[in-house]
Amino acid sequence: MTEKVEVPKGAIALVNPIKSVEDVQEVVSFDDLDIALREQPSLYAYYATCTAKAQLQYNRAKQNVDFVEASVGNTLRKQLIASGEKVTDASLLRRIKTTQNYVNAIECENDAQYIYKLCLSLLDALEQRQQMIIQTCKRYELEMTISGAYRSKTGLSKDDIMNAISRK
What we know:
- Helix content is 75%, strand content 0%.
- The chain has helices at 21-28, 33-83, 89-97, 100-147, 158-167.
C-alpha cells in the first residue's frame, strides 16, 4: 500500500533520488579498482535513468506552471468581469503571480529543476569517474610492465618503455 501525500494546490509531488552529499561521494569514489570496474556500468545506468526521470519530472513541473497560470487566470478573469472591473492582460498576470497556487507551482518547478541539474551533475561525475578508472588501469598496466610482472600488448620490453618515458 502506498502512502498518500497531501499536496497543496499548484504543487506536485517531487522525487529526489540523491539523498545527500555523502551518497554522491560514495557513488563517485573508488578504493578498490576491481569493484569500481564491476560497479561502474550499473551505477551509470541507474543514475542515467534517474536523470531521465528527473527531466520528465521537471518538464511536468513546467507544464504544471502553465496549467495553474491558465486555470487561475480563467477564475480571476471571471471574478473580475462579474465585479465589473476592467480586465487587462498585464493586470491579470500580476494578480495570477500573487496567488498561492501559482507560487506553489513555481516553487515546484524550481525544485524539479534543481533535482534535474543535480542528477545531471552526478552523471557527469560518473563520466569523470570512468575516465579516472581507465587512467588508473593504464597506470597499473604500465607499472606492471616496467616491473616485468606483465608483458604489454605492444610487446615492448622494460627498456623500451623506460626509454620512451625518459624522452618525454
